[in-house]
């Protein structure tokens, strides 16, 4: 909230008695010393003398709020609105603000909304106050400037924030006019000060102006980071490096992190002093440090260390919240916690980070629980819905290594002996390849493929918006990232639809994926595979064959496969292995069409690549057995069984 304002506005100062002025100055001094009880006593004396003065009532409501530890937000809001009604102000109608004397009401309410994280509404209100910026008292003007810049950053408007900072610096930091206002040398009403008082006042205000200048530079750096202007960030930080305050050090560490210098960022984080000032500021340095360290471990591909560090941050944050929460004796949902703590809660952001770390640590069920909590707040983020879909996919199938493991037995058993000995092959290689037919509602939040399909649909709809919400991340989704995200979402949707036995939906996702000429080659490869499988399931082998034959995804796909494997280990892991998978799918389609000879030739090419230590799908053996038996090549089939099935030799 704003500092207590003396009731000396234009049109009222002439009516204030010397006694009332003395009480007001004493109240202000007590307020600045945080002696709220004594301050309240002075205000009550003023209220008895001036019962209808709205500024006195406003200051009394603010001081009572502070006296109660900022834990009676509902009571304060009611008192504040009552004061506004007394001066005939409607806070919902911004056009009703016409008198500069009423700006203090709108500013205080904008701060209140900011702490409740109602950023858009708070920004609209503070924008109206900002239109009177040149007429405001200096300390209030500084607070208005900082708040409007903060809100522009919180609403993902870094470019507008930079323009504001440039103007504010020219008006309040760099000009003689600002100095005159600060020192009181301009024509102003007020008491006469001696030279000593003027010198002390100038020194205090110079310190305040310097702190204001540093805050603006820090805001400029934050805005530039979101615009990826890292060189300019470095130049700005060099001007305030000597301050060595925790905010500046966090910014320096983040800059190194964004530049990919993770070791340097970690070294800077270790230098930041740990302060337990959560009650005063709503921020805990140990929580922030553990969260940032977790991010560094995440990009160092150490997911276990990452979620361990972020878990420490969550435990500490929850402890801090419990320590400052009082029993809710007052009525209202906002009471019980200090106002700045309500807005300072970062549990959702921490749960988001924990969920991402757990997902990369291959713990999809635990990751799902964390991300489902985060999506209740950030439900407009398509990337978050994709992560939930990936949790559902990984729960269904954590790895596809077994699809390339030739050590798996193909034989169910052996019966008989001698010339009557019979080999019973497995009806299916893996007993859990078919998804459960039990009815599962897609609306129930659980890591199922049904819910995963709903997540994909949400992600598709949100990705089509003109402005994409990337919260809690402040990094905007630019065009290349959007194209990559589109490929991930469409391929995930096609995979889930195939697993659920819905070839029509799978084909739709695959065709949408292949329509785009901006997707990378890995996604194009998956698009052809999924589209072909959907066509086969739709009893259209000829179209499936055409789809696989026209695939041109193999033009130097190796670099993109390696780039993908930096994020997640998966197979196929090489271009030759990917080619073997596509040839296998083509052989299946040819077999279904009856072209057994062509299918056999393709299988021979796949088998030759296996000899060169290329990962190929184990299903090749079963398909080869089927083709040889269909062609009447019994001896070749028996040889194939003996080579790949040790049980057959017993």
TrEMBL record:
Highest taxon listed in the record's lineage: Eukaryota
Subcellular location field: Cytoplasm; Nucleus
Gene3D superfamilies (UniProt xref): Tetratricopeptide repeat domain (1.25.40.10)
Transcription in keyword set: yes
Cited InterPro entries: CNOT10, TPR-like_helical_dom_sf, TPR_rpt
Keyword annotations from UniProtKB, A to Z: Cytoplasm, Nucleus, RNA-mediated gene silencing, Transcription, Transcription regulation, Translation regulation
GO cellular component terms, A-Z: CCR4-NOT complex; cytoplasm; nucleus
Chief location of this protein within or outside the cell: cytoplasm
Keyword Cytoplasm attached: yes
Biological process terms in GO annotation: mRNA catabolic process; negative regulation of translation; regulatory ncRNA-mediated gene silencing
Function text: Component of the CCR4-NOT complex which is one of the major cellular mRNA deadenylases and is linked to various cellular processes including bulk mRNA degradation, miRNA-mediated repression, translational repression during translational initiation and general transcription regulation.
Family membership noted in the UniProt record: Belongs to the CNOT10 family.
Name under which the protein is recorded: CCR4-NOT transcription complex subunit 10
Provenance organism: Macrosiphum euphorbiae
């Amino acid at each position: 909230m704003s500092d207590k304002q003396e009731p000396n506005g234009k049109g009222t100062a002439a009516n204030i008695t010397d006694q009332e002025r003395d009480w007001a100055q004493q109240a202000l001094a007590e307020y600045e010393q945080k002696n709220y009880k004594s301050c309240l006593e002075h205000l009550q004396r003023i209220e008895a003398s001036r019962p209808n003065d709205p500024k006195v009532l406003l200051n009394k409501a603010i001081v009572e709020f502070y006296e109660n530890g900022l834990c009676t937000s509902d009571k304060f809001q009611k008192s504040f609105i009552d004061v506004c009604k007394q001066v005939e102000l409607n806070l919902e109608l911004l056009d009703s603000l016409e008198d500069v004397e009423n700006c203090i009401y709108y500013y205080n309410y904008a701060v209140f909304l900011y702490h409740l994280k109602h950023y858009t509404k708070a920004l609209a209100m503070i924008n109206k106050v900002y239109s009177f910026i040149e007429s405001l008292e200096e300390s209030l003007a500084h607070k208005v400037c900082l708040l409007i810049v903060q809100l522009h950053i919180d609403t993902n408007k870094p470019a507008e924030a930079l323009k504001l900072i440039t103007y504010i610096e020219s008006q309040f930091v760099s000009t003689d006019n600002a100095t005159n206002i600060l020192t009181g040398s301009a024509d102003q009403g007020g008491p006469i000060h001696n030279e000593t008082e003027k010198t002390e006042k100038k020194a205090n205000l110079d310190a305040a102006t310097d702190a204001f200048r540093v805050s603006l530079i820090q805001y400029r750096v934050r805005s530039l980071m979101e615009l990826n202007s890292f060189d300019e960030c470095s130049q700005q930080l060099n001007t305030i490096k000597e301050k060595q305050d925790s905010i500046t050090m966090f910014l320096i560490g983040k800059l190194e992190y964004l530049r990919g210098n993770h070791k340097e960022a970690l070294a800077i984080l270790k230098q930041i002093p740990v302060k337990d000032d959560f009650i005063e500021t709503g921020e805990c340095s140990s929580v922030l440090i553990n969260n940032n360290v977790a991010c560094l471990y995440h990009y160092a591909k150490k997911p276990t260390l990452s979620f361990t560090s972020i878990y420490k941050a969550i435990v500490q944050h929850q402890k801090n919240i419990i320590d400052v929460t009082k029993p809710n004796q007052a009525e209202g949902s906002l009471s019980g916690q200090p106002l700045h703590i309500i807005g300072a809660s970062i549990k959702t952001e921490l749960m988001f980070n924990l969920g991402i770390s757990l997902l990369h640590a291959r713990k999809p069920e635990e990751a799902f629980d964390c991300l489902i909590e985060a999506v209740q707040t950030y439900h407009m983020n398509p990337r978050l819905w994709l992560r939930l879909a990936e949790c559902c996919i990984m729960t269904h199938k954590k790895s596809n290594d077994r699809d390339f493991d030739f050590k798996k037995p193909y034989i169910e058993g052996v019966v008989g002996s001698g010339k009557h000995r019979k080999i019973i092959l497995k009806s299916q290689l893996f007993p859990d390849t078919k998804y459960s037919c039990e009815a599962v509602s897609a609306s129930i939040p659980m890591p199922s493929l049904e819910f995963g399909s709903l997540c994909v649909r949400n992600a598709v709809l949100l990705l089509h918006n003109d402005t994409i919400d990337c919260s809690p991340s402040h990094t905007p989704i630019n065009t290349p990232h959007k194209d990559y995200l589109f490929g991930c979402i469409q391929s995930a949707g096609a995979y889930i639809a195939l697993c659920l036995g819905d070839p029509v939906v799978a084909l739709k996702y695959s065709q949408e994926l292949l329509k785009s000429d901006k997707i990378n080659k890995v996604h194009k490869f998956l698009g052809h595979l999924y589209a072909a499988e959907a066509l086969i399931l739709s009893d259209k082998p000829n179209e499936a064959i055409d789809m696989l034959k026209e695939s041109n995804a193999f033009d130097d796909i190796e670099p993109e496969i390696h780039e993908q494997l930096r994020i997640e280990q998966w197979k196929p892991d090489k271009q030759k292995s990917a080619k073997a998978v596509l040839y296998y799918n083509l052989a299946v389609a040819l077999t279904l069409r009856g072209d057994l000879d062509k299918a056999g030739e393709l299988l021979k090419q796949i088998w030759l690549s296996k000899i060169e230590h290329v990962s190929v799908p184990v299903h090749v053996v079963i398909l080869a057995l089927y083709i040889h038996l269909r062609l009447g090549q019994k001896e070749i089939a028996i040889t194939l069984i003996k080579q790949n099935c040790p049980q057959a030799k017993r």
